[in-house]
Amino acid sequence: MKAVLVSLVVLAVVVLAVLVVVSRRDRRRVSSGEDPAALQDGRADQQRHETERHVASGITTRHHNPPSM
Fold this sequence. Notes:
Elements: H1 2-28, H2 34-64
């Protein structure tokens, strides 16, 4: 029983150590200066695409529906 308990404690310490190392490594990563610009460009492209779809959808809808008088 004592061996199982010691093994569990050792396993918990190892898991905790791995979590600490990984979290520190992730915090040390420095994002490049291009990341914010790339995100902004991606958002602009997405907005432009959505706008084009919206306009095309409106044009298509107007052609299929009879004009209201």
